Amino acid sequence: MHLSVDHRSISSHHSSIIHRRNSQRLGCLALTLVILGACSTRQAYYAMQESQRTQCQTRPPTQQAECLADTRITFEEYQRRRAEAMRK
Fold first, then answer.
1. Burial of 7 (0-12, 13-18, 19+ CB in 10 A)
2. What is the C-alpha separation between 42 and 53, in angstroms, rounded?
3. Contact yes or no for 57/64 (Cβ under 8 A)
4. Rounded CA gap, 31 and 25, in Å?
């Protein structure tokens, strides 16, 4: 018994599967980047706040309290102020 195989059909089907997998991977990558972007913005904010706290410690004691007060702003408050400043 001899089976006839259409290699073009198999090749086309294989290409279709690869294309779908690549599309799914690209979609997952895009979603991951969006999520990481949101996380990294928050992380960057907190890293900058920590850096500012370290800088405050190098100031004279009379200036430290005022300097540290600026580092107590929440990320949400920072975003609100930033958005407000951008509108102006």
1. exposed
2. 17
3. yes
4. 10
Task: Report the distance separating Cα 71 and Cα 60, nearest Å.
Answer: 17
For the chain, what percent of residues have pLDDT higher than 70? 57
Residue 15 has pLDDT above 90, yes or no: no
Chain position carrying tokens 């198999």: 10
Tokens coding 11: 């090749």
Q: What is the pLDDT of residues 36-78, one digit of tens each?
A: 555 678 888 899 999 999 999 999 999 999 999 988 999 999 8
Taking only Cα atoms into account, the Rg of the chain, rounded to an integer number of angstroms, comes to: 27
Alpha carbons 88 and 84: distance in angstroms, whole number = 7
Q: Which whole-number Å values give the CA distances from 3 to 7, 14, 40, in the listed order?
A: 12, 19, 57
